[in-house]
Amino acid sequence: MSNSIETFSEAETQIEPPEAFRKAARISSREQYERLYRESLDAPDAFWKRELSELTFRSPWTELVEWKLPHAKWFKGATLNITESCLDRHLGTTTRDKVALLWEGESGATRSITYAELTRQVQSCTAALRSLGVQQGDRVAIYMGMVPEVVVAMLACARIGATHTVVFGGFAAESLRDRINDCGAKVVLTQDGAPRRGAPVPLKQTVDEALRSTPSVQHVVVYRHMKDTVQIQMQPGRDLDWAELLAKHAGTGSSAPANSEPAIVDAEHPLFILYTSGSTGKPKGILHTTAGYLAGVHVSTKYVFDLQPNDVYWCTADVGWVTGHSYLVYGPLSNGATCLIYEGAPNYPDWGRFWQIIDRHKVTILYTAPTAIRAFIKAGDEWVEKASLASLRLLGTVGEPINPEVWMWYHEKVGKRRCPIVDTWWQTETGAIMTVTLPGAVPAKPGVTGLPFFGVEPDVVTQDGQTVPPGEGGSFVQRRPWPSMLRTIWGDDERYRQQYFSDIPGYYFSGDGAYRDKDGYFRVVGRIDDVLNVSGHRIGTAEIESVLVAHPSVAEAAAVGRPDDLKGQALVAFVTLKPGFSASPSAAEDLRQQVAKEIGKFARPDEIRFADGLPKTRSGKIMRRLLKDIAAGREIKGDLSTLEDRSILDKLSK
Ligand code: ATP
Ligand code: MG
Fold first, then answer.
1. Dmax over Cα atoms in the chain, in whole Å?
2. Which pLDDT value is given to residue 631?
3. Which of 427, 448, 530 to mutate to test the pocket of ligand 1 (most atoms within 8 A of CB)?
4. Which helix (H) or strand (E) holds 561?
5. What is the pTM of this model?
6. Whose CA is nearest to atom 11 of ligand 1?
7. What's the DSSP call for residue 528?
């Protein structure tokens, strides 16, 4: 039996970039893309020298990359501080007075902060943290909501050369404690509370709980965001008030606060540690370093989002995930963009909130996740139809394979067929976008991520590293190191080697399965470990799920295998329905027939299980590993810290 994954592509749809978009785009043809791409691989030194020339390096690199598998050092010999590229470099230009952060609170309050103001706040925070003893090389944990201060906190750490680890504000005390202890954070930056659907999430209280057993932590700095509604207890000697502390380091007049100058660090200095989503297992502390990461996010933000000076750019990801790091903070700021930050839930007070935000702030670029789009579809078209959305010119998606049906809804209802969609495949580990259809250059294909981004060389290979022919599925790998790649798993270099470089010798293995089509586009078919093996046919989860989601009644679907004596694996599909549809044996039969018709009889699910909701990570990804246990009637095993809603599991297990 062949080991490759079979692919059952639906009739191929191609959506050309609208002519108006193409004309004004930074990269406007496949030829232009190919030329730059070839240069990025064949003459990388020249490519990176030119593309990074606008950024601030204190001393240039002497060697582009040193690759001793599995360890890469990029831009050897260069020194810099990333905040000089994100902040200081803009102060001598008109960007100085441009809005850097455009914030909307869940309550509806708004703030706008210019590059000059943001720089000043970062300087104050830098001096304040230094006064608490934070130095280059220390770790600092950040456990905050979506407020401008979280950006200030990250940049202040980077300015000191302290490595930040942002922990998503939805995590419970144990998860926070484990992350703090894993990296040995010296200081925790937090806020009293963050509003979530009208009620405060008590962040400071959770920090207090976590800190009962975190010997490394010396100080906690608390930003008072909800003074009137959230009571907190400050522990004398340990806890400090953000505003009071920063006020002491405000500087006078136009002169910068004392001790706020950036630490000039080596290119490979650790910038941040970030724990992965935990879709497939216990989260891993991914380490990113300075110059390579900056290079990757700067160039990808500019070209993937076709950034133009007047854009109002909105990435909806929480800053606690890598998308929030790369495309809410470092990439947009290094490019001098205006970034919108929305604090609250997408359905508060109702499902129209995102669309009102876009109209209110004239958002031009929207970058969000399939899970959000599926939720909007389920909520009903009336919400999105009420808004104008005329300001939008480009849409993006990341996080999971997007079902073609969901892609089309995004294209029609949100983009009004006017906006290209960039389906960006990447990982916490890759630091920056790896495959995409550059929006003015090439047509997009619903459900297909696209072509390699500059400087990366993906491939689809067999277990022993042989490239498979177009149309055949296999392991999605990287053949060469790229600047923004992870450097290690914090404190566990052996796990780094095992996890990413042991399955397929010589290559970085992402853990995903994919195939390349005849145009060179990559399509991700799901996690390799989730590949279904039905009567000898190996099928990616995305293939089956997309057929189910294409049915008018289905909101979300997850396909998993259950051990079966006869077939090897029986196929179980968990399905949630749109409002107005109800579960019944005939509805299940209908869905089974749909899969048989679209893919083949062998792929017909043995069981359809209707559910109110699917188990997801806190970043919104379907956790198939838990569904596998449920389908097999096994006890649910493994790390549950990233599961968003435990009650869903209880309901499903019944
Ligand atoms: P863990 O590694 O802890 O199991 P995770 O893989 O979900 O969690 P992330 O780094 O947040 O952690 O997610 C990266 C993964 O998300 C990719 O490996 C891929 O499976 C999926 N992914 C992201 N973007 C896309 C996309 N555009 N198309 C298909 N899959 C995507
Ligand atoms: Mg992963």
1. 78
2. 96
3. 427
4. strand 554-564
5. 0.97
6. 277
7. G
